[in-house]
Amino acid sequence: MAEKLSSILLIEDKLQEAAVVAEVDLGLAQRGRGQRPLSATAP
């Protein structure tokens, strides 16, 4: 049971890491192409 739980936590950690990387990539891509930068929507 503990082994299964640790593998789930490891997968969750990898997913979170991938999500952060994807978010950064998306931000850089948007800034690079100049398509609707997030700063433009901010007041």
Describe the structure.
The chain has 2 helices and no strands. The protein has 43 residues and is mainly α.
Radius of gyration: 17 Å
Number of helical elements: 2
Strand content: under 5%
Order of helices and strands: HH
Structural class: mainly alpha
Main beta-sheet strand count, sense and barrel state: none
Assembly of the depicted chains: single chain
- Principal-axis shape: rod-shaped
Number of strands: 0
What is the rounded distance between the termini? 50 Å
Mean pLDDT, rounded to whole units? 81
Assign a percent range to the helix content: over 70%
List low-confidence stretches: none
Task: Provide the fold topology.
Layout: H1 2-33, H2 38-41
Keywords:
mainly alpha, 43 residues, 2 helices
Task: Please give a quick description of this structure.
The chain is 84% helix and 0% strand. The protein has 2 helices and no strands.
